Amino acid sequence: MTDVLRYAAFTTDPAGGNPAGVVLDARGLDAGRMLAIAADVGFSETAFLVRDEADPHRFDVRYFAPAQEVPFCGHATIAAAVALAEREGPAELTLHSRAGDVRVATTTGPDGVAAELTSVPPTVHDAEPALVDGALHALRWSSDDLDPGYPPAVTDAGARHLVLITRTRDRLARLDYDVPALTAAMRAADLTTLQLVWPEGDGDWSSRNPFPVGGVVEDPATGAAAAALGAYLRHHGFVVPPARLTVHQGVDLGRPSTLEVALDADRPGVRVRGRAVPMP
Hints:
alpha+beta; Diaminopimelate Epimerase, Chain A, domain 1; 6 helices
């Protein structure tokens, strides 16, 4: 029987954050079995780890949502790293994912274990007008809902996200989208989530992330999308490294999450830090 751990990531409260499944020893599991386990767990993603026989700090990892495999998942990475640290102590880890090698460092302190991942080198491209139009139609938004100072973009820091920045926080709060239409638009563009954000000011951002392609209506915390947002802001010159920002997500779902993002002047990858706690 496969042992599945359950953690809430990017929170210190089991009732907050984004729930993730974690399988620390996935030896012998094929893709079909992993997908079945992830569907049974029902969380946004479940991470499946296989330790390298030659290097105990290196793992092969695969991430499965209830409906499909994804190349990278930030919140399940944070959850898996914290789970390992609680059992083996803090360490520097390398997770070999479909997106590439992701380095993760864990630390312990008075408030428990924290983990910080460094994304693969990101890419940022202007979003095709047809993709933006399709997403807005499915969201039941208009172009007037977007902040004209921030160009729509497709950003990939391990997984592809369409980044759309709204004029108002209220537009995020009233999210009510056409699930089939948005699913079709996202699949056509190979998107993992939409990164819908509003700038609160002073480096704080409000975020919501629809995830219908994974079989989940919405993510309460999306580490890969937070990394994508950091890459987007750096690419367009809205922040200049070294820089830090904080993403607040899950508030509208009743599962508040805090994602700390750091951009360095001397490395292309984006750092995303957070805590994770076991769920009852």
